[in-house]
Each structure stands twice: as C-alpha cells, then as structure tokens.
Amino acid sequence: MAIISVINGPNLNMLGTREPGIYGVLTLADIEQSLSQLAEELGHEIIFYQSNAEHDLVNRVQQSKQDGVATILLNPAAFTHTSVALRDALLASDTPFIELHLSNVHARESFRQHSYFSDIAEGVICGFGPKSYELALLAAIALIEQPRE
Ligand code: DQA
C-alpha cells in the first residue's frame, strides 16, 4: 500500500462552474471521490490538497517525505506556466511526480505551452478532462509497482 498525494493549484476549487466548456462540469469533490474509490480498489491510499496560494503548495510539497508520500499527482494549474518556486520545491522534496492537466494545454494559448514541470516529471498527462486524474493515478501505481530500471 502506497500513499499517493494529489495536489491541485489555483482555481481548481472552482471546477464544476469554471469554464465548463474547457474543464467540464464535475466538481473537484466529484473527481476526488471517484479517485479515492479507484485507489482503494487498487489497494492504495490517496490524500488530497488544493490551494490557491503558491506558498501553501510549496509547503505541502516540502512535507511529502515526512508524510510518507510515494508519488505526487500534480495539477499546478496556472502555476504550471509561472512557478520556479514550486518546481524547486519538487526538486528539493525528491518525490516522483506526474504532471497532469484537464485540458490539452498544447492546443490552447501559446503561454500555456510552456511548463516549469514537464522536464522533471515522471510523465505528463493532459487533455482528457477529469479522466486525466484517473490516468495519472494508474500511471503512478504502475510506476510504484514496477519501478523503471
Ligand atoms: C490546467 C491548465 C492551465 O493552463 C490552467 O491555468 C488551469 C488548469 C488544466 O488542468 O487544464 O488552471 O492546469
């Protein structure tokens, strides 16, 4: 049994009503509920965190080792395109992470096409709406159960 931490950045607390044409109609609570269920079925524990504040996200990432987190599933939201601080926190925490996005950031505005995380992530999943979270969870579990050589 591994602990997987799901960390969501700014404005993802608004899912459900926020630009539903892009992000869908499910709330973050809906996504968390189905993800918890899937993790439990697969024999792993999942913990959730969302913040609109960069320093809170940095603090949370720094805590990962103490919390016994095996892998982080990270949707940095707008901080994807801006946050050196959050990138540095991930490097400092030395915890593997998967970057994920609901939307296909590569098919949107040009400023969304650069990420401060992709080159240091285990992998990146984007463009599958709420399913991106499930796909990221399955990828994380696959890596935990069968680490790369
Ligand atoms: C997002 C994409 C980001 O560009 C945006 O700022 C978000 C959400 C996504 O999940 O598609 O807030 O990370």
Describe this structure in words.
It contains five helices and five strands. With 149 residues, the chain is an alpha/beta fold. It has a single domain (3-145), classed as Rossmann fold (3-Layer(aba) Sandwich), CATH 3.40.50.9100. Strand 3 (69-75), helix 4 and strand 4 form a beta-alpha-beta unit. The chain starts with a strand and ends with a helix. The structure holds 1,3,4-trihydroxy-5-OXO-cyclohexanecarboxylic acid (DQA). 1,3,4-trihydroxy-5-OXO-cyclohexanecarboxylic acid binds at residues 11, 75, 77-78, 80, 101-103, 105, 112.
Please write out the topology.
Blueprint: E1 3-8, H1 20-23, H2 28-41, E2 45-50, H3 54-62, E3 69-75, H4 84-93, E4 97-101, E5 123-126, H5 131-145
Parallel strand pairs: 1-2, 1-3, 3-4, 4-5
Helix pairs in contact: 3-4
The structure holds 1,3,4-trihydroxy-5-OXO-cyclohexanecarboxylic acid.
Residues 11, 75, 77-78, 80, 101-103, 105, 112 line the site of 1,3,4-trihydroxy-5-OXO-cyclohexanecarboxylic acid.
